[in-house]
Amino acid sequence: MIRRNTVGVKVGNVQIGGGAPVVVQSMTNTDTADVESTVKQVYELARAGSELVRITVDREESAEAVPRIRELLDKKDCPVPLIGDFHFNGHKLLDKYPDCAKSLGKYRINPGNVGRGSKRDPQFAQMIEFACRYEKPVRIGVNWGSLDQSVLARLLDENAQLADPRPLPEVMREAVITSALESAHKAVELGLPKDRIVLSCKMSGVQELIAVYEAMSARCDFALHLGLTEAGMGSKGIVGSTAALAVLLQQGIGDTIRISLTPEPGADRSLEVIVAQEILQTMGLRSFTPMVISCPGCGRTTSDYFQKLAQQIQSHLRHQMPVWKKKYKGVEDMHVAVMGCVVNGPGESKNANIGISLPGTGEQPVAPVFEDGVKTVTLKGDNIADDFQAIVERYVQTHYGSAEA
To answer: Residue 294 and residue 138: Cα distance in Å, rounded?
Structure first.
């Protein structure tokens, strides 16, 4: 598969499009005016692997807090670019709080929420003027749920005049695309270079999202941000997002992605980052953390020991990755197998960088460990989990070179 040829956009130290790897981003759900909580969540998202983090800038207190948030993140050695999410009053906030405008890495503008009637064009132009003044990129993000009604009304009128009118869903999809493209071309006319524009057309249905982005990809070379909006909670949100984004990414469509999951109350926000990374990694597009290969279990594995070990190893690898990626070059490509019985256990373990084949029901209570296809040790007793984790740590230290080299 060849990546789509899009114009590259630089956001701080992050490259979007232009042949760069697909970028993972996320968004906070804290009150941006609460500086401490926002800094904490941005830091957690960045540590989980979010390469861009969007924050809500909805009122004066939020805009006033942005420079302080940026300052505190820099003190924590967390350079992740911040994206300002503006709706309705962004032109006023950027005007009144220039330090906010300077501190953000990118602005996010929704054409449907930038202004109504006669106010729309001048307020959009004002937002683009600030982006030009401070040399900031802009994501022009159209949402199905907040579509520019003037564009939709115009296309509906045009469709009604046709001898064979198109179905309403098709007209609505076209309205989403038209809103994004017309806004992007207007921004270029106002002086914003193409290499500072990212487009998105967020839909909440899988097939609609695929259709819109396939059409967008064919009609422009702007960098594209992908995401199934309002994806939902838990497995529903994960499955829907994966189904839509995998189809598009396989075609080379998309330069940056976000998984818009509704979190469980009080849950860690970083799940959406992990899902985005795992989509890209399982598709072979990027590597973020060592992959754990483990079997689903069957009647041969009536003990849950291998399940607990697989979970423990996977958690350990993800927890260690922020440290490892600074020390060990290429460790994110490592494969670890945790298998539950003799049927596929030795074979999968041999094919992984490092693997363990645990005993199934009725098998001899020993666990051979394979490193690069060769059995190096057989573990037994009550400390198999700890012993294997130590072997994995040692393997990383001895097989991966310095990331600073």
So the answer is: 42
pLDDT, tens digit, 9 for 90 and up, residues 315-329: 999 999 999 999 999
248 token code pair:
């598009």
Using CA atoms, how far residue 76 sits from 36, 65, 71, 79, in Å, is 13, 17, 9, 9
Count Cα neighbours of 339 within 13 Å in the Cβ-side half-sphere: 24
- Tell me the CA end-to-end span of the chain in Å, nearest whole number: 31
3 confidence band (pLDDT: 50, 70, 90): low
Measuring CA to CA, how many Å separate 48 from each of 40, 78, 320? 12, 12, 11
Residue with tokens 């666990």: 367
* DSSP label at residue 361: T
Q: Angle, to 10 degrees, between the axis of helix 35-48 and the axis of helix 271-282? A: 20
| Strand partners for 140 | 109, 199
Distances (CA, A) of 171 to 152, 175, 217, 220, 327: 8, 6, 18, 19, 52
- The DSSP bridge pattern shows strands 23-27 and 52-56 to be parallel
Q: For the full predicted model, state whether its pTM sits above 0.85.
A: yes
Quickly list DSSP for 180-198.
HHHHHHHHHHTT--GGGEE
Element of type H or E holding 332: none
Tokens of 104: 């953000």
Length of the chain in terms of residues written: 405
The pair of three-digit structure tokens given for residue 155, joined into one six-digit string: 């296309």
pLDDT, tens digit, 9 for 90 and up, residues 37-57 = 999 999 999 999 999 999 999
pLDDT of residue 211: 97
**Residue 366: which H helix or E strand, with range?**
none
